[in-house]
Every structure is written in C-alpha cells, then in structure tokens.
Amino acid sequence: MKRKGFTLVEMVLVLTVVFILAAIGAWKVAGLKDEATQVAQDDALATVQRMQQLADMEGLQEVATDTLGRILELQSSLASKGHYYFQFNPTNLAAKVAYDAATQQWRTP
C-alpha cells in the first residue's frame, strides 16, 4: 500500500527549520534600520558641508541662522553661480542635519 502525503513528524521538522531560519533573518534585518538612518545622516552632513565649502570658495554670504533657512540660502546662492547639482528637497535634508550658529558648524542632531 502506497502512502500519499507527509507524516506529522516530517511536517514538524520542516516547520521547525523554517521558523529557525525566519528568526535568524529577522534578527539580521532588525539592525539594518538603525544603520541606514546613520548612513543617511552622515551623507546629509557631508552634503551640506560640501555645499558650505563651495559657497565659501565662491565668496557667497549666508545670513540665515536656522537650519532650513541656511540650506535654502545655500541652494539658491549656489544655483545663481551655476551649481545646480545641489537641487534636492531641503526639508528632508534639514531633518537630518543641524546648523549651530554659535560655532558656525554643521552637525548631526
């Protein structure tokens, strides 16, 4: 007599292996969000620092002391000099960096 299907023991073993692999995968993915957030902040900080260096080389002056206003001034003043490659959403960038008017330095919040 030929059987069709799987026994209960075979099903339990397969499900156990699947759950173990899923737990390992979830553990590895859990740390990726924090790492991606840190990489995005580092990239945003490097971007605004490059913008500031370019504006300083061009002799452009910014007067805004808040982060978003400073980014918008940098974008518009650099665009007026023909540097259009820094055109991106300033609100997203301002959420990842902060401008310290006292030290006149960019930093991560």
Task: Provide a short characterization of the protein structure.
The protein has helices spanning 8-30, 32-58, 67-80, 90-94; strands at residues 98-100, 105-107. With 109 residues, it is mainly alpha-helical.
Features:
109 residues, two-stranded antiparallel sheet, mainly alpha, 4 helices
What does this structure look like?
With about 110 residues, this protein is mostly helical. It has a domain at about 35-105. The protein is about 65% helix and about 5% strand. The protein has four helices and two strands; from the N terminus they run H-H-H-H-E-E. The protein has helices at about 10-30, 30-60, 65-80, 90-95; strands spanning about 100, 105. The protein has a two-stranded antiparallel ribbon with strand order 1-2. Strand 1 (about 100) and strand 2 (about 105) form a beta hairpin. The radius of gyration is 26 Å and the shape is rod-shaped. About 15% of the residues are buried. The model has no long low-confidence stretch (mean pLDDT about 85).
Mean pLDDT, nearest integer? 87
Q: Please describe the biggest sheet, giving its number of strands, its sense, and whether it closes into a barrel.
A: 2 strands, antiparallel
What's the multimeric state? single chain
Q: Estimate the helix proportion, in percent.
A: 55-70%
Q: Roughly what fraction of the amino acids lie in strands?
A: 5-15%
How far apart the termini lie comes to 71 Å
Per the principal axes of the C-alpha atoms, what is the gross shape?
rod-shaped
Order of helices and strands: HHHHEE
How many helices? 4
* Low-pLDDT ranges: none
Helix/strand class: mainly alpha
Q: What Rg, in angstroms, do the CA atoms define?
A: 26 Å
Strand order of the largest sheet: 1-2
Give the strand tally.
Answer: 2
